[in-house]
């Protein structure tokens, strides 16, 4: 059996000390996964939208172990308990079970990369965040990708673990470079220029 869970905007669904067990499927909405850096600032390790799966059961964690999970929009989830998922996996071919565990391992490695990113400059963190947002929530309007989610400078600051003022300066710099277009609650990214800048950051 599964259950449906509806989260209001800004609901904190999980904390690092209160991990949600089982597997969750996002029907609609948007979740932010975050951690705290050494200075106690929150930084984003992932954004999950409709169709995404997360959760934890036994040794397998799908990108949500020891993180804060917050609803950025009203979000509807479908939840399968760890016991039910174990029963379902037992009925699966061994190759599928191995694939799930390999996916869990890869997500863990991705989390480590995101933690290292949190130590970079605010400008670079904003760049990487915009790339992640474009990949998940971008709409092509050549030569730009326009984000289909509305984010304020404060919300972006919360995601990258910085102040609103610092993020505003970083965005202004990206606008001057022709990488980003910013209007009220709307951001568009120049695809090819963004890729070039990301390569420079590496």
UniProtKB/TrEMBL annotation:
InterPro entries: cNMP-bd_dom, cNMP-bd_dom_sf, Env_Response_Regulators, HTH_CRP, RmlC-like_jellyroll, WH_DNA-bd_sf
Molecular functions (GO terms): DNA binding; DNA-binding transcription factor activity
SMART domains assigned: HTH_CRP (SM00419)
Domain Cyclic nucleotide-binding: 23-106
Superkingdom of this protein's organism: Bacteria
Pfam family, one: HTH_Crp_2
Keyword Transcription regulation: yes
Any one Gene Ontology cellular component term annotated for this protein: cytosol
UniProt xrefs under CDD domains: CAP_ED
Protein name: Transcriptional regulator
Keywords linked to the UniProt accession: Activator, DNA-binding, Transcription, Transcription regulation
Record domain HTH crp-type: where: 120-193
